[in-house]
Design goal:
A hairpin with a 2-residue loop joins strand 14 and strand 15. This protein has two domains: about 140 residues, Nuclear Transport Factor 2, Chain: A (Roll), CATH 3.10.450.50; about 150 residues, Nuclear Transport Factor 2, Chain: A (Roll). It has a six-stranded mixed β-sheet with strand order 2-1-6-5-4-3. It is α+β, with helices and mostly antiparallel strands. The chain has nine helices and 15 strands. Helix 2 packs antiparallel against helix 3.
Amino acid sequence: MSIELKNKELILEYYQAIEQANAETIGDVLSDYMSDDCQWYGVHPFNEQKGPEAVNKIFWQPFLHAFKHVQRRQDVFMAGVSGNDGANWVTSMGHFMVQFDQDWLGIPRSGKVAMIRYADFNCIENGKIVRSGFFCDIISVMNQVGINPLPQSTGHSFIYPGPRTHDGIQLQDMDFADGEKTMSLLNQMIDDFSQLNKTANDNYPPEILEKTWAKDMAWYGPAGIGATYTIPKFQEQHSYPFRQGLKDKVFNGHICRYAEGNYACFFGWPNLSSTPIGGFLGLPGSEIRADMRVVDVYRREGNKLVENWVLIDIPYWLKQQGLDILERSRKINNPS
């Protein structure tokens, strides 16, 4: 059995144990599967935690107190070796379907079903999770209960589908050559955008994207930005507002980046540093330099990327500039 397949089986067992746990028992599950010094990277306000006890207290106990009947609905499940350090990772992306029964992070409960978009990266050594990156779309949860903390999105936010080909859950070992092809295409795209950062060419022609992207690309961005479809609409509804509203963009690299079969993924901590000059997210410029934590998951078809699921820790990016949308929401919805 390959190391990738062995690690996939371990994480599937871990996920099954989580789904059977509650707020009182989840700590035992984390202790069973995480190393004592596991480094956990979570979106704001969870941030960095060390060890299963801290992860339990800061994230999982409040999560399972607020959300009942949690079901993990995976759209992508993959494993591989990160090129930057040779570490073994397993990645899951999809939604938690939950019953939103208690307030969470100051977001008022709906008493109804909610879909929580997530991406989960777990690095495994000697049968234990030693590093973990967990992203979820908190702004999407706010939107689902009628809270809109940002101006109107340039794209369109909804409950995003999984891969068009329905083959994202890779339970077997995939062809190594396919993964190499996917990784090569992804690296070329990253290099192309890094070059745009250096030249500050923020009104780039579509031909730059067409080198690596299909013309009918689907880009599923975080709530607050939204999704776009086709290269022209991606440029109009996300890329141009993003690039033209931020200056001095510097790519910082990734903690994890790898491919398996026709899929690739990465996350950084942070991926990108920049200074907002106005327009991005419909907000004024702050001239305060801020970091972005980002997840990307890709699907390749032939020699082009065709689908891209993106999560950005927007609440953290805003907080660095003095805007705490969670605290503001808490005060508005719980004025006492």
